[in-house]
Every structure is written in structure tokens, then in C-alpha cells.
TrEMBL record:
It holds the Pfam family Peptidase_M28. Its main location: secreted. InterPro entries: M28_QC, Peptidase_M28, QC/QCL. The lineage of its organism: Eukaryota, Metazoa, Chordata, Craniata, Vertebrata. GO terms for cellular component: extracellular region. Its EC number is 2.3.2.5. Coiled coil: none annotated. GO terms for molecular function: glutaminyl-peptide cyclotransferase activity; zinc ion binding. This is Glutaminyl-peptide cyclotransferase. It catalyses: N-terminal L-glutaminyl-[peptide] = N-terminal 5-oxo-L-prolyl-[peptide] + NH4(+).
Amino acid sequence: MICNLSQRRDTGMWRAATTTMTERSHGPSKMRLFYTVTIWVTFVHCTAGIPWTEEKLHHRAVTLTQEEIRTALSHTDLEQMWQRDLRPLMVTRYPGSTGSQAVQEHIKTTLGSLGAGWEVTEDKFVSQTPYGQLPFTNIVATLNSSASRRLVLACHYDSKYYPPQWHGREFQGATDSAVPCAMMLELARALDEELKAQQSTTPDLTLQLLFFDGEEALFQWTATDSLYGSRHLAQMMETTPHPAGATDTNQLHAMDLFVLLDLIGAPGPRFYNQFPSTMHWLSRLQSIEMRLHSTNQLVDHPNNVQYFWPNQPVGHVQDDHIPFLNRGVPILHLIPSPFPSVWHTFDDNEQNLDRSTIQNLNKIMQVFVLEYLNARPAIPSNPQNAP
Ligand SMILES: [Zn+2]
């Protein structure tokens, strides 16, 4: 049974109409009591009958007005993202490297400095690799850790390791995945006010950002030489009770939707549908793309749909979502098909990034997050309209 607000509202209207009609013909008190009890039972069933872990299946996002969207997007700034976040991320940053350490510090410092009150934790571990034991660190940032449900955005911050015979050439991993990580930091910064306010308006639903280490194979992609960070974090979250003290639910149950961003930043990306169960969220991204296009808020975007193609299925891709998918978490995998032409080459660098695409996707993702979290930005009052 699907219970949602509109059905509840309909039931209430039906009760009002039916009560009036029956009161006339059958005597008021018994019938009123009967319908009141019926409605009360229905209401209790609808509100308490759904376990909180299933609320994600019935979640409705709000649709922001044009004015709300303009207000929300007024804080995003591509140039600022480029200088503050992207440049510091585009360094050699394979697991255990000094670049990795610097990137971790950057992510933690950035989120820690924001007003929304991110709780930033680390998942540190050591794993056997083809090059021996290496240290790994995942970073987990949660806006309101007491909220039962979480919209999750994820990226990997490690870069692919190239051994010494490539000495002298630096693999920047710009699309893979410096840009997705910078987009997530920019989203947190641009929406800081809205995310702060959202915690009191929708306290049961929050945003979580995951920055994985060790996505890349160190030598060659196998089940054990890849996805080091996501495999570790998925296992850890599965064994961590949520909400605190729960006996039969864990942190993976808290995940409404796990949105993985990868290989973003090249021109002309197309995101197709990998998972039918989350197709409606890809459709929402498409609708946001169309809405922003129609209000001229996208740059170098001649057609109303260019990026999101929910009706076109595509095969699965091995990536950081796999350990979560295997444990039943709903996945939206935002990875372009085909991959960028520079993928895993030394040309995956700053020069080959497409600024317009990144700016447009920043805006689309920011609206998506606000709408999912039911976070309506406060429209600044216009003094000219004041009495
Ligand atoms: Zn890669």
C-alpha cells in the first residue's frame, strides 16, 4: 500500500463529504464515530505503518520555482571552484602519497569551515595491494548525523598510480575524479545557507558526502585490486547501527539514494539509465536540465536536453557504487557513456576540461539536491515591493 500526503489529503476530503451526506440520512453520532475511527485507523496505518527504511520508496522531491532556483544558484561560482578546489585536487594523489594527504586536508578543512555544521569523520585502514601494504582513508561528511535518512553524493579522490617508468609525467586525473570532488565541495559551499536552514525544516532527511580513497586499481583491475575505499566503507557502514542504538538497522539503511559522480568534466557527457529502480531520479535530473535551459541558465547548451537520458538503458560499469549496490542501496551512477576520450591517459588534465559543462552540471546538481531535500531557499525580500 502506498501512502503519501496527497492520498491522506484525499481521504480527509472524502470523510468530510461522506460525513455530511450520511449525517442527513442515518443520524449523526454513530456515523461520525464510525468514519472518525476509520480515518484514524487509515491515518495511523499510513504514518506509522511504513518503516522509516521504506520511506525512501515514497519520497517526493519539491519543485522549486524559477525565483527560488535563481536565488539558490546565485552563490555558485565556477572560477572560485576552479581556484579554491579543483587546482588543489589535481595533484598526484594515489593512496599513501603526500598529494593524497594534502587533498584529504583540503577536503576536511573546506567542509569544516562552512556554517552548515558538517560532521567530518575518517575511515582509515591498511590493505594489502600488489605493492604491499598501503594506508587508505575515506572521508565521510554528514550534515545532520541524527537524521534517519540520507541523500548521498560520492566521488573518489585518489588518482591512478603510474609507476616510475613514467617519471616526469604527472597524471592529474582531472575528470577522474578531481572534478566530481570539486563539484561536491562547491555544492556544499554554494548551498551553505540553504543546507543550514534545511536541518530544521526537514530534520529526518539530510545530505552525506563520501570521498573515497583507492578506487583505482594499483596494478590491474581485479576484485581485490580496486575499490579499496568503497569496499571498506560499505562493510563498515553495514555493521554500524543507525540510528544510534538500533538493533536491526544500520548506516546503509539510512541511504535513500547513493549518487556516484565519476569521469565528469569532458565536453558532451551523456548519462544513461543503468538502474530501472532509480530511473525516476535520472528523469528529475533531465527535467532540471530542461527547466534551467528554458530560463537561459545554462551556457553552451543549444538543445533542451543534452546530458540526462533516463529512457535509454546502458550496461553496468564497475565503480565505487558496487559494494553498496550489492548490499541493496539504491544507486544513481552519474558516469558518462562513452567515457571521456582522455580517460586513463596523461591528457586527462586541466587543459582538456570543458568549463561550460562543469558549470552547467554544478547548477543541475545543486537544484537536484535542494529539491530532493525539500529545501526551499529563502527569497530575499524586495524593498521596492514593501508597503
Ligand atoms: Zn580511473
